[in-house]
Amino acid sequence: MDPYPVDPLLVKRTIKTLLKVVDGYTCRRIYGTTLRITADDNLAASFAAEVGLTEEESTLISDLSAVLAQKYQLAGTYAPEILLGVCVAGYGTRCYMMLQKLDELEAKLAPKEKAAPAPPADQKAA
């Protein structure tokens, strides 16, 4: 018998977190790519919404994952380690995506003109 019986609630919450991260990343990529290609904000939002995971789908996937994990004792021995890894990876992915978004925003808002290059060293002395 596994030392850690599978906690269906923990599995369900972990799967739901993972789904939220993957869905968020996918929708943002679809939105950003569509906007870059077409410059049409409405079309980009429409495409992102069309592919987005519904609450019903998320609930069903997480519920069934919990049932299957308990039924087959999946990850029973290493459940705490696996579920912790999934949650930390999800959090890290969200942080990375936000930092990437901030970099893109900064680049977009940065002045278009670049600073003039510094004069060569031999001209400074003159």
Secondary structure layout:
Layout: H1 8-38, H2 41-51, H3 55-71, H4 79-109, H5 121-124
Helix pairs in contact: 1-2, 1-3, 1-4
The number of domains is 1
How many helices? The count is 5
Class inferred from helices and paired strands: mainly alpha
Number of strands: 0
How does this model look, in words?
With 126 residues, the chain is mainly alpha-helical. Helix content is 75%, strand content 0%. Helix 1 packs antiparallel against helix 3 (55-71) and helix 1 (8-38) packs parallel to helix 4. It has one domain (8-101).
Features:
mainly alpha; 126 residues; elongated
What is the structure about, briefly put?
With 126 residues, the protein is mainly alpha-helical. Helix content is 75%, strand content 0%. It has five helices and no strands.
